[in-house]
């Protein structure tokens, strides 16, 4: 039975006749589609693979240009065992070449068979709110269609895990904005409150946001901006309550075992993502390192298309570096 690896072999070798041409076709595919470097082992010795080449010797086949201790060595690509998660296309192409060569398959998981990630809930706030926010399906999110950096740039290990998890469903969460018509683009009390805060009129901004919540306390963006004002004016302690309440409203809309994607590019997801990021910042400032790491990590899994802010925070959090005003 044909599978995606057979289809990739057929696509790669289209119009390539004879072993020499086919090896050159594989070499071209590795040059165009693989993200370097990636980690691997050769007889138990760890190396970094910087490139895949073909030197014209058919019996040797493709060679991996490996770096170790500052030196480069060329070894048969079939002798390389990748270490750790790989981008989807890299894994597929390695498996395609091995199958074409008649070598045993690599001990690599196919996309989607990696350990399943599920969203861990963070809010402990108990609220008696109205109906859960709608979670609207928006099709599949495919890591193969995303930009993970220029060729040769290393991919963050957490992003590699996300890539290895394969295709996941994406959703857009309903955004509640009380007293505002969906067609009224000129009236946005959230923007007005943010501008009041930036101008130093914090109390006026707070009153405007509290007025929205008095109408409908499912307005996640109002909770998030109350958290932002509190964080800027009073610190992380008072801000946590607001951020966590916004997260609680959003989490009530997520089914148990939720493993989907909530892309930032879908603007109605932004209130929840902002609350989650603010909650993580508060944990960082309070030196609750494990909480901060868990929330920033979930932020990457929820929105892997734009993970830079969360990844930038993860590094100092994991290193137990105190938060400093940037």
Note down, in words, how this protein is organized.
The chain is α+β, with helices and mostly antiparallel strands. Helix 7 runs antiparallel to helix 8. The protein contains eleven helices and seven strands. The strands form two sheets. It has a five-stranded antiparallel beta sheet. The protein folds into two domains: 4-101, no CATH class; 135-318, Serine Threonine Protein Phosphatase 5, Tetratricopeptide repeat (Alpha Horseshoe), CATH 1.25.40. Helices cover 44% and strands 13% of the residues. Mean pLDDT is 88; it is low at 108-113.
Strand content: 5-15%
Largest beta sheet: strand ordering? 4-3-2-1-5
Question: Which value, in Å, is the CA radius of gyration?
Answer: 24 Å
Name of the CATH first level of the largest domain: Mainly Alpha
CATH topology category name of the largest domain: Serine Threonine Protein Phosphatase 5, Tetratricopeptide repeat
Q: Taking all residues together, what is the mean pLDDT?
A: 88
| Range of helix content | 40-55%
Largest sheet: 5 strands, antiparallel
Number of H/I helices: 11
Number of strands: 7
Name the helix and strand elements from N-terminus to C-terminus, one letter apiece. HHEEEEEHEHEHHHHHHH
From the 3D coordinates, which CATH architecture of the largest domain would you assign?
Alpha Horseshoe
CATH superfamily of the largest domain: Tetratricopeptide repeat domain
Helix/strand/pairing class, anyone? alpha+beta
Distance between the termini: 56 Å
Total domain modules: 2
């Amino acid at each position: 039975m044909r599978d995606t690896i057979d289809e990739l072999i057929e696509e790669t070798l289209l119009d390539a006749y004879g072993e020499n041409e086919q090896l050159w076709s594989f070499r071209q595919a590795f040059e165009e589609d693989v993200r370097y470097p990636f980690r691997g082992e050769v007889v138990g010795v760890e190396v970094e693979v910087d490139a895949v080449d073909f030197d014209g010797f058919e019996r040797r086949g493709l060679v991996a240009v490996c770096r170790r201790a500052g030196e480069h060595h060329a070894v048969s690509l079939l002798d390389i065992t990748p270490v750790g998660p790989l981008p989807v296309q890299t894994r597929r192409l390695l498996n395609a070449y091995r199958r074409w060569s008649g070598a045993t398959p690599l001990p690599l998981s196919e996309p989607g068979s990696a350990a399943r990630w599920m969203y861990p809930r963070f809010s402990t706030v108990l609220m008696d709110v109205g109906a859960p926010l709608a979670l609207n399906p928006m099709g599949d999110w495919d890591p193969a269609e995303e930009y993970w950096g220029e060729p040769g740039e290393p991919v963050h290990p957490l992003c590699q895990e996300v890539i290895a998890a394969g295709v996941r469903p994406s959703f857009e969460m309903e955004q509640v904005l009380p007293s505002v018509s969906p067609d009224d683009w000129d009236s946005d009390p959230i923007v007005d409150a943010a501008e009041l805060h930036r101008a130093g009129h914090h109390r006026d901004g707070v009153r405007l946001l509290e007025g929205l919540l008095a109408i409908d306390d499912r307005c996640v963006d109002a909770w998030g901006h109350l958290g932002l004002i509190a964080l800027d004016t009073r610190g992380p302690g008072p801000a946590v309550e607001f951020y966590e309440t916004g997260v609680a409203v959003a989490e009530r809309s997520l089914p148990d075992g939720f493993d989907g994607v909530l892309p930032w590019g879908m603007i109605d997801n932004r209130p929840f993502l902002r609350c989650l990021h603010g909650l993580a910042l508060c944990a960082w400032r309070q030196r609750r390192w494990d909480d901060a790491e868990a929330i920033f990590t979930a932020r990457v899994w929820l929105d892997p298309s734009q993970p830079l802010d969360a990844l930038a925070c993860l590094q100092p959090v994991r290193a137990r570096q105190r938060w400093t005003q940037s």
